[in-house]
Amino acid sequence: MVVYLDSNSRPLSSTDLSSPKSALSTVLSCPALAQSALRLVSTPPIQAGPAGLLYLHQRECAFVRRTDPAVQLLASDDATTCHLVAVRNPATGDTLLCHFDGAGATSLVFIVDERFCGSGFPDSRGESASLTQELLQAFRRSRLHFRLRTACLAPSNGARRGADNLVYPVITGLVMSVADGSLTPAKVPLPVRGPWQALRGLRFLSREDVVFEVYDPDSHCLVLRPFDYSGSQIFDAYADAPDSALAKLSTSPRQEPPHFVANLRQALRFGRANKRPARQVFHLGNIVERPLPGGLWQHGAGAAESDLKTA
């Protein structure tokens, strides 16, 4: 497989991706990618609404066909050191968006040709650069051909602000149009982020080193498949811990949004009440939610969110 930096560039080599620093340097040295990144960070973020929108939480992805009757927009937010990866087949319009945190890079490789990357900023621990290297290596191992069109990463997506002159990511959220593949920086309010937010917010604790595909493009439903946690000690240790302790669970605690701690606490309390989700929540079967007009969801199969313990 071949990964091209842009339409006029040579393909990436194993040497280009030999280290996080090398991978990042290679991408940033491409003039076309630098220009596309500048255009993206210069675009004011929109406030995403619920109509026709499918939100993806950390470690989730969705594949949608251009003619999908239910989903017109794919979106994700709160990506600091995580990467938002958008992929599109220019011939068919098939589209994929993923909120990638470093787990399951090879499971991201789907049948598409054109690739976009968003988010990731120059954090002090180098988390973002490592994810960039891992992603590009995974796509390079695929049987398919990819052409990188936008890479809004590291210095391109960082801006210093505040009294301490700390670097913050310019873009943490994106909306991708299924119709034409366009990307727009976005803020996605919590009520727009769909059902089962606490459960889906615990994907990062899954035993499986994979990205979870959460949309069925044939039935046009949100499908959540059973998973269990790699360990449950974190729930007892942190569910009622001080805010300062919860903030430190992030790879970039000072750059997280204001709702980060409250959301994480809600998810941890849900996990404490349901320590074996494959049995307690999923009952060993899938949870299915059907999209309704206006961004609402109708329970289709499996457990109902309203019936479960949350604390």
TrEMBL record:
Residues 1-21 are annotated as: Disordered. Pfam families: N_Asn_amidohyd. GO terms for cellular component: nucleus. One of its GO terms (molecular function) is protein-N-terminal asparagine amidohydrolase activity. One of its GO terms (biological process) is ubiquitin-dependent protein catabolic process. This is Uncharacterized protein.
